[in-house]
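Open question from group meeting: does this chain pack into something compact, or does most of it stay loose? Before anyone orders reagents, we agreed to write out a predicted structure and look at it together. Recording both the input and the output here so the notebook holds the full record.
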Amino acid sequence: MTGAELPLSIPRQLRDEHTDLAESALEIPAPLGRWVAVLTLWPVIDQHYHQLAARCFGDGLAMEWKAFALVVSRTGIAEPGPQPDTFVFRPEWAAALEPELEGLGGGQAIRTRLVEAWAEEPDLHLVDEITAWARGLSRWDLFERVWLLLGEQTTGLSRPTLEVFRDLPLEARYTHPILTWASGAAASLLAGTPRQESEAVLQRLMLDSAMLHADWSVREHSDEAVSAGTFRMIGERRLPSTRVGQSLEAAWRTKQEVDAFIDARSRQGRSPGRTPQAIFRAFSARLALFRHDPLGAVEEARWATILADWEPVAVIASGVDALARSLSSDDEPSGLPAAPAALDDGLGVRGLRGMGQLYALLALGNHAVRRLDRDALEDVLALVSADEAALAGVWSVRAALVAWQSALWGDPELGVSTLAAEVQRLSMLGREQDEPLGEALLARARVGLLTRAGAFGAATQVVDAMPAHLRLASRALVHVWAGQYAQAVRLADAGPYEEGLETTDRHRLALLRSGAALLDGSADDAMRRDALRELNRLLATSSFAHLALLPTAAREALLTACGPELDAADPRLGVLRERLAGLNDSGDGGARPLHLTERETVLLPLLATDESVPDIARRLHVSVNTVRKQVVTLREKFQADSRAELVRRARTYGALP
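Structure tokens returned:
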């Protein structure tokens, strides 16, 4: 029985609305019969399926969903489905409609036409069925289209559809490299534990980077080549290496090669599309950030934003931009959002959107430390877990924020051990402590913790291991905390002439120099003017942490010296004083900084030897009683009960190597 022979009793209202159906007709017109037959490919239909089938097989028959629903229900072809406004075709009509399906080329040909029609006018309501059919047809381009259309909002995908994305074959991920990311993200969504979620994404990125995308530069299609090169670059950073920093260097070389490839193809008139270029620029910005090149990260992020025609790319670009600016400048970037209640649903940090949100949150956390806003920092840390930060490639940023939280408001000694344990745990997910950004952030955080804990010797060792251009401000900070004010002033004086010194470090050194000179009694009018200028800049940018990092005595000396010239009516000054008062300064070795005289500095190394007091007295050309009095004074300063304990405490303090 063909569609033209299906018996039908059409209600008068329907006949009035559709004059092409004759009032006396007792048959479904042939186009409607084909339409109905196509819809039987789905177990349950609603208006979304109806519209897709109508576009393919309606042959211009103008019948809205409600009219169509009346036809199929009144004729008995279908009955109400499990959900409102849905229908299920009766099994007895399958045989009657089968000739219609065969006349259209069979189920496979029909599905192909439907998939093509869907691609022209996508409807995300049909994603589960379309992906299942596209898998059978090996239409990997449609999988890429679906992923881009989803905008990474995957909460509506069924488990079978996620499994299809997870299990995409090598061919799919090779010819459409963005499916590398989609496959890893789907595997992560299906994982059972946070650690498995992380491993699922990283495993897919690393394997595809090594196995599929190493030949990116010889791909004929420009979009495919740039996408493959991007995922090669992303994966290389995570690949095992034989020396420190090797993986990041390899990823950066690939970034430069993709840059050259894009330029060459553009000159040939074969420029890649906007989406692959935007994704490449966004991840190039992220890579520049890891290299501790915030200016480069901001520039790459700007290009990604200009090119972005896919929202998740714009989100990650803005997040990288915000984090890079927060790490390189005291000024708070405009447009930073307030901390959300939670990261968006969907892929979370497995996707570009969630990763960008996480970077923006960490930027907020960094500014919270700068402003000494404890509550805001706690809000950020509650939203971003350590494992999420590791998956996004920035666990070192979060670990540093936690360390500063301990240094400023908690227990610095506990913070030292906590930081060490966290670095050891998270290094299994990425060697960020060996990369320039992670190395700098973690080293500075350790110095902050150790100085506040009074472990100046250990702090000095950390400073010695830092990159040369980062040592100056941290070394001067250790000297101030250790009461070695003259040394701190000498170091700070070298600040303006130090090559590669960051702008924020220049400001820190100016404040350190003034504070140390005030405590040392060597401050002159020029130093006081410098101190006033820095305090006013500090108030203007709310970078209160620069002052908070100093010992209590140095902070009070600066505020006392500059107080008469500061604007007492400035509300920010009140906020500063309130937040400084909220710091945990218990056990602050800088409340009464330990200051060694020149003779004590000479004597201490001799006490660390096996020489007796008389031998030391002869070496120094002083009396034995003089040496003994100095030893007593040193023991009192270091709160030591014996010469051995004095030496041990002096080493911890940093007064002895």
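Observations to bring back to the group:
The CA atoms of residues 368 and 375 lie 8 Å apart.
The two ends are 98 Å apart (CA to CA).
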